[in-house]
Amino acid sequence: MAFSSEQVWAKFYEKLVQTAVPNFDKTKQAVSIAGTTLSADIVNADPDISNANIYNIGNLLPAASASYAPGGDLITSYSLFLQNIDLGGDSNPALQKKINVAAANVNSNQTNYTKVFSEAMDQFIKYKTIDPSYTGGFDEWANTNYPVYASAKTSLNGAIADYDALMVKAHGAGYTTIQAAQASVSALTGAKELLKKNPYNMPVKVGSVAPAGGTPVLPGQDPSAPPNTLTSTFRPAFSVGGGLANVFSAWETESVNKNFPVSIALSGNFADGNYRDFGWSESVSASYRSWFSVKVNQQASYQSVNQDWKQSSFNCKVSFNGLQSFPINPDANWFSSGIIQNFKDKLLSTSPQFFGEGGSLNVIPSSIILGLGLKIEITVDNASYTSLKTAFQQSASVSVGIGPFSFSGSESSHLNTSNFTYNDDSNTIVINPGPTDVPLLLGVVSDKY
Predict the structure, then answer these.
(1) pLDDT tens digits, residue range 160-209?
(2) For residue 139, what is the enclosing H or E element?
(3) What is the pLDDT of residue 214?
(4) Residue 355: its pLDDT value, please?
(5) Could you tell me which residues come within 8 angstroms of residue 33 by beta carbon, excluding any fewer than 6 positions away?
(6) Which of 34, 61, 146, 243 is the most exposed place for a label (fewest CB within 10 A)?
(7) Residues in the chain with pLDDT < 50?
(8) Using CA atoms, how far apart are residues 367 and 29, in angstroms rounded to an integer?
């Protein structure tokens, strides 16, 4: 029975999700699978480089497709959502006059409180000089010896409470919550601040580092550090959980021992891909290159290798030093899924579409599928084996594609040094890239809103 490259991709999709995301729930989640080699340098020795890569993955909103592709960015869409929440409220112009009066009252109380506090603190310092044995705090002393301080503080708190109550009445319940949420994502006080650290962002280094060994070293010279264009800055805070550091260390041990304990076997019954099983609607499809493909130059696209796709004689085993999914989350200081759930149905009539199919916040990354190391074993019928061997040997110096994995000596990829072994007796090809310390990003799991 004949089958197709698309069906092999569908089988890979199915087995990858079963292996790495065993608790996947298609009613609440959707999976996007990488169609080409993607790296995830999120366990770098420099945590700021790791942070930059975590941000790039977590902030990227996948397009509505089974194949992983950019569809937007989280913090921009989330900020726009906050700006389009309709809290209702009272538009009576008389209320605005009361708000203006309340705001002026807050300002005058703030000025008075600052003056009284300064005077009280001066008196407290003098008192401590006279009686150095006093062990009480400022508030305790002021309540007894400077009662006008407590009166000024109470008056200020009352003015603020009056102002807040009027603002809630004018703008609707939830005003304070949404106001704080908007401040937490802003470029001045929140996560989008690029110049200094705050509770909502994290330090990153952006730019590039040249490969080690790229600079010639003369006899007697010590190798210099690879040149780089890295710049220190800040990005909205994200984190990866699941004990990544410890898991990655265990994977590295498997790599050192040349073990590949996790495998995806592509053989047996093949069927057409049903992407509804992975959280997508009936209309969603996937566009992947042919499972076996080659590229003859850097400018060319990948071209499929001629195959006699026979189910009974096709086996492709993809093995890893380690493979699993890890949660990836925006920091709770600036992002709230609770705000989304509470206000997703309370939007302005002019609001863009945020939720449901086609909405900019329809799917938000919640975990990433990572693998380390790679070994691929292919066993096919004689004609297909000859076709693959000929194509791979003629084009290996440029690029060979097997599923989402690319192997070459000239492309920029951490899989650029690969060993192809051919066994003519068993019609088997084994591809074993050199070891790496950078995980593969194989897919992203998103929560649906």
Answers:
(1) 889 888 888 888 778 889 989 999 999 988 999 988 999 999 999 988 66
(2) helix 138-145
(3) 46
(4) 95
(5) 12, 13, 16, 66, 67, 68, 286, 404, 442, 443
(6) 243
(7) 212-215, 409-416
(8) 10
Q: What are phi and psi of 441, to 5 degrees?
A: -95, 105
Half-sphere exposure of 394 (CA within 13 A, CB side): 11
Residue 248 backbone dihedrals phi, psi, to 5 degrees: -65, -40
Contact (CB, 8 A) for 353 and 359: yes
Q: How far is CA 411 from the centre of its chain?
A: 25
pLDDT in tens, 396-436: 557 889 999 988 744 444 444 568 899 999 999 999 888 88
Q: How far apart are CA 274 and CA 7, in angstroms?
A: 10
- What pLDDT is recorded for position 227? 60
- Report d(CA 226, CA 218) in Å as an integer: 15
**Structural contact between residues 85 and 142, judged by C-beta atoms closer than 8 angstroms:** no
**Residues 117, 377: Cα–Cα separation, whole Å:** 76
Query: Among candidates 431, 423, 440, 434, which has minimal Cα distance to 392?
Result: 431
CA distances from 254 to 113, 241, 374 (A): 65, 21, 11
Between vectors from CA 362 to CA 356 and to CA 365, what angle results, nearest 5°?
155
Residue 234 pairs with which residues in a beta bridge? Answer: 203
Query: Contact, 19 vs 262, CB < 8 A?
Result: yes
State residue 175's pLDDT score. 87
Bridge partners, 370 (sequence order): 324, 441
CA-to-CA distance for 290 and 165, rounded, in angstroms?
62
In whole angstroms, how far apart are CA 409 and each of 37, 300, 391, 405? 14, 16, 15, 14
Buried b / exposed e along 303-342 (16+ C-beta atoms within 10 A)? eebebebeeebbebbbbbbbbbbbebbbbebbbbeebbee
Task: Give CA separation, 268 vs 8, 17, 316, 326, 400, in Å.
Answer: 10, 17, 10, 29, 25
- Cα–Cα nearest to 374, from 315, 311, 318: 318
For the chain, give the number of residues.
449
Dist. CA 112–CA 106, nearest whole Å: 10
**CA 448/CA 359 separation, integer angstroms:** 10
| Predicted structure pTM score | 0.81
